[in-house]
Write a structure and sequence with these properties.
- With 232 residues, the protein is an alpha/beta fold.
- It is 43% helix and 10% strand.
- It contains nine helices and six strands; from the N terminus they run βαααααβαβαβαββα.
- The protein has helices at residues 22-34, 43-46, 54-64, 71-87, 99-108, 121-130, 153-162, 177-186, 217-231; strands at residues 9-12, 112-116, 139-141, 170-174, 190-193, 209-211.
- Strands 3-2-1-4-5-6 form a six-stranded parallel beta sheet, sandwiched between helices.
- Strand 4 (170-174), helix 8 (177-186) and strand 5 (190-193) form a beta-alpha-beta unit.
- It is elongated and about 60 Å long.
């Protein structure tokens, strides 16, 4: 694995980018909706809407069961879902193949690593701590850390500031439109993984690069830097 030309800050989305958290989110969803007689939904049926949050996941589970749901019931179920998920946050969740190896290379080269997720910060930290990887990251932010959250670029820029990084030497890595839009708004190059939770193909979102495995991350970063150097 070759190394990136220069160092800076790499900001990662969490769910669907670093970790496959749907492996725990879907079971929590099924336990929550089972009390209303719903049949379990599958990973494949739900994973593409994970990036839209718990409310959308609950709504999709009811739709798949042809069961109506109103805002009142959604508001009632959402805290139950989050409580169940928090209690089972790392039963099955795992880092994607090659992810930790890539993070090791970046850290050894002097890169600052950060996480910028729309998940509640408490849950982000609990998950990373449960996986014993929290200390890798110079900054960890969630959707409730600031007044802004992705796709607002301020969420990304403030995460970089917390990591003592600089916009001009940062790269975003994510899996969805909110990640790509935040990076675009911040003027930061963005690499998309194509194995995440987006319901829109990342190729339609025009990131600077797309990778299908973390073994390709360093090469994608080098290509972005080469292109930037040629423009300067």
């Amino acid at each position: 694995m070759s190394t990136y030309k220069g160092v800076g800050t790499v900001v990662f989305d969490l769910d669907g980018t670093l970790v496959d958290s749907a492996l725990d989110l879907v079971p929590s969803l099924n336990r929550t909706t089972a009390r209303y007689g719903l049949s379990p939904v599958s990973y494949e049926q739900i994973c593409k809407v994970v990036g839209h949050g718990g409310r959308m996941m609950i709504q999709r589970a009811f739709e798949l069961n042809d069961h109506p749901i109103d805002d009142l019931l959604l508001d009632k179920l959402l805290p139950c879902f989050f409580a169940d998920y928090e209690n089972n946050i790392s039963n099955n969740t795992k880092f994607y193949e090659g992810c930790l190896d890539a993070l090791d290379v970046l850290a050894a080269d002097g890169w600052k690593l950060a996480v910028c997720s729309n998940k509640h910060e408490k849950l982000v930290r609990k998950l990373l701590c449960s996986l014993r990887e929290e200390k890798r990251f110079a900054a960890i932010t969630g959707g409730d850390t600031f007044n802004e959250k992705k796709p607002d670029p301020a969420h990304l820029l403030r995460t970089i500031q917390l990591a003592n990084g600089h916009r001009s030497s940062s790269i975003m890595v994510g899996d969805s439109n909110s990640d790509i839009s935040a990076a675009r708004g911040a003027g930061i190059p963005v690499i998309a993984v194509d194995f995440g939770y987006t319901d829109v193909p990342v190729s339609d979102l025009n990131p600077d690069a797309i990778i299908s495995h973390f073994s390709k991350l360093i090469g994608a970063m080098n290509a972005i830097t080469d292109a930037r150097d040629q423009q300067e």
